[in-house]
Amino acid sequence: MARMVGFECSKCGEQLAPQAAPTICPNDGGPLYVRYDLAEIRRRTTRDSVNSGSKSMWRYSAVLPDAKPVTLGEGFTPMLPSRKYANLLIKDDGLNPTGSFKARGMSAAVTMLQHHGMKKLAAPSAGNAGGALAAYAAAAGIEAYVFMPRDVPIANRLEVEASGAHLTLVDGLISDCGRMVAERKEKEGWFDVSTLKEPFRVEGKKTMGYEVAEQLGWSLPDAILYPTGGGVGLIGMWKAFAEMEELGWIAKGRWPKMIAVQSEGCAPIPKALHEGHTASETWPNAHTLAAGLRVPKAYGDFIILDIVRKSGGTAIAVSDDDIMDGVKELASSEGIFACPEGGAALAAYKQLLQSGFLASGDRVVLFNTGSGYKYLDVFAKYWGVDAFAVPMKLPASRNLGGIIGPY
Ligand SMILES: [Zn+2]
Question: How far is the CA of 295 from the centre of ligand 1 (A)?
């Protein structure tokens, strides 16, 4: 486990001393990065040390904070070569606990907050982050308060309720939920686990970058397609590349083009990028079937835009129809039942091939960030499947006296 030497503001560069449960930069509200003594880690460990670690993101404990993990086996998800597109690899983060990539960030954040004795955690969520927070809080024996839009996929509501978290459904967007957490947290004694309002969700998400490198034999792809709501994974992967280079785990060289994928109904990052701005504007009337992309303004938008530009990548918005076609294509060509955000990444890949931004020879990693099983209500509605045409009855109990079939 790595010893933290402190925190660094992503905005002003201020160095802060190690402290329990840090939040954001006191000067300017900038998200904080966790900093380690990488030279010491380099002397002490090699990248091969990960081989003796668990088959989870905690195999990278050499570069994660020193605390007893609250783990459900998150991370180290498969990276599958596409069966349809040569040189495309699909990183299937839908296979995480709670069915989404949010497990990584919440595992790391809840680990540290439990370590520092926090008792009540709160977060706004577009859906999956709330489910992940609820699950990890339950595993840690900590109370969770989740705020999500009323129209999130039903799975997100049910998983939060099942895990005993306090759920508030909000007539609004994640930004409205975030405001409610901010207004009440002091009075209620909640620790705010919102995207980038504490530094450890990035630490969890950065393991995606370590995994991509390890699964490519400690090299990096030409481009990464990343469905971007709050953008924590994109920010985390970029941090991972920097750390791995400093640790000598990857050769110095070109990092992947980072491609932020959004939906046409909520595309603040592509708009800001193409208009040459360093930050985004709040997207009005955000709407998309990809609930995870319905983030009208990401707290770390300026970091996302900076990374996309520095990497030579781009940002692209795709339509909901293309997103749903992408879901069907991933299922029918690859056998992967993806979330709409994964479908968006495939739609973006095809458009960028067509525009010539990507070449078919480029080695590209596409992130599927969640399982399609969490969006059954969304798919049923879109594909015109009347899921409740047959009145649902709970199965009657069978008293078979321990006999197992045949029936
Ligand atoms: Zn600052």
Answer: 23
